[in-house]
Every structure is written in C-alpha cells, then in structure tokens.
Amino acid sequence: MNKSNNIDLNFLQEFEDGMNPANATNSSFNFEILGYGEISTVFGIDTDENANWAFKRLPLFKNLKQAEDYVEFYKSYNHKLEEIGLNLPECSGFAVKGHKGIYVTYLMQKRLNSKSIAHKLIHQLPDNQITVLLHLVLNEILKVWKHNQKHPDLVLGIDAQISNWALKDYDEQNINLSENSELYFIDTSTPLIQKNNLEQLDAELMLKSAPGFIRPVLRWFFLDDVLTRYYSFRDIAIDILANFIKEQRKDLIKISLPIINNFFKEHFDIIKENPIKEKEILSYYKEDKLIWSIFLATRRFDKFVKTKILRKRYEFILPGQIKR
Known about the structure:
Blueprint: E1 3-4, E2 7-8, H1 9-17, E3 31-36, E4 41-45, E5 53-61, H2 64-83, E6 91-97, E7 103-110, H3 118-121, H4 127-150, E8 154-156, E9 165-167, E10 183-185, E11 193-195, E12 198-199, H5 203-207, H6 215-229, H7 233-246, H8 252-266, H9 268-271, H10 278-309
Antiparallel strand pairs: 1-2, 3-4, 4-5, 5-7, 6-7, 8-11, 9-10, 11-12
Helix pairs in contact: 4-8, 7-8, 7-10
C-alpha cells in the first residue's frame, strides 16, 4: 500500500478512475460536495480513511511532471505562508493519472467544521463580533504585506475573500471572538508568488476549465484583473466587502468600510492605499458577478456539447444555481 500523510495513493487512483465529473452520482465512490469555487470544487470522500480530509480536484495537467510540479508549488506556497505567521490546516497534495492522457492533482486539507468558516460565521455572530472578525482578517493580510515590504524580490499574493478564513478552535456553543482569537487561512490551491516581478503561477492552467472559444477573453481578464487583484491590499479589501453582498449581508458594508479605511490609515507606511468608496464596492460586485456568471454559463454550454452532442468525457464538476 502506497501511503503519504495517511492518504492511500492507490485509493486516490481508484477514486479518479471511477470519477464521473459530468454526473457525480454515477461515480464509483460516494463523495459529498462541500463547496464550489469559480474554477474547482471541494468535496469529502465517504470512506473511514478519508473522512477527515477535504479534497480539491484539478484535472488540468498534460503530463505527470507538470502535475507533480504544481503540487510542489502548492506545498512551497503553504510553507511560505506559515513562515510569515499564517495558520493553515494540515494539507498535502498528490498527482494521479486521469482519463484520456491527462493528469490530475488532488489537493487536500484537514476538514473543518463548516460552521467555523467565516462566510458562515457572519450569519451566526452579532455585528460587534463581526467587526472583530474583520480586524482579525485584516491583520492576517497585513502579515503578507509586511513580508512583501521586506522581500520585494519574493512577493506573495493572497485570495483573502471572506469564505477563505475559518475560526481556529471553533466551539459552536461558545463563539466569542477577541483580538487574541486565531484564524485559519483555508484556500491555497492557487499559489500566488511573484519572483522579481514575474508571476510564478502558470495562469494558462487556470484557463483549462473554460471552453476554448472564450479563453482569449478570459486570458486577458484573468491575467490583467483576477491575478493582479491578489497583490493589491485595496483590491483584496474591496473583494472582501463585495463578498458580504454575495453572502446576503450587504448591510455589513456600512460598518465594515470605515474599519477598513481606518486600517489603511493606521498602517499606511506598509499598505500605502487610499480609502475605499462604497460605489467602488458596488461597481466591483456587479462586474465580478457578470463575468463569473458568463464564465459559468459557457462552461455549462461546453459540458452540454461535449457530453450530449460529441459524447465525450467532461472533466469538471459544475455547481448548480449559485445565489449571489
């Protein structure tokens, strides 16, 4: 039995062999969808050996070396974030052979109580506790900026949207946040590192989930907008505020915007950002919603063409209706 980090690699290969992304219920093994991102899906596998792990499947690679290189890049990014003081759940990643000549990475992370994740917390906590949560998130992001200021040759980006944080040592019966509370950062599957101003992530990999006819447009958008926003504290903060709208808590913008702008002022020597205006958040949200809605619609069309007309395999698990 080939094992690493208590994960049976032979089982992962069997799981991939039996995976039917286009119709997950027809897969050989049962698994539970835990959440959807714009590109990938997070799920749990219903076996005793894997019950404590959350998995993210990336069917993006043309050969084994490319897949293994991505796993190592992922691990090095995680290590760097931990070095600068961020808390990450135990995580690992492995490459297996996919269908039709591709290779697939499975990125894993210790499974957390879903209620501990911040986009769920904002529906459990009173507003005064949500402001504490926001301060905690901002201070975690500040750790990245302090590193970047000291190491301009090795700059880290971070996708700090509200759903990418979780409360460490969560106790549903006693949720009481303070400035001493600790957070986990839980989404490192897109490693964001610039060396000497050069992006180390192969952005073309992220475009493989999109149909070919829309990739030129997404290439321009993804490289010029999505990737660059994660290296701008201001853009990250706008994204967090826009997340409140997505999570049906638009009311939180009124109390959160002054906190963020005061944080910018207090740490201007490091952040060097101007205050955010509410109209910027609303404009950003509308544009972001439109772009990702179009992206998902084209993926659904691509899935229909491949599975219903061409009778080919479709490699991605798509979400149902998303409430935004």
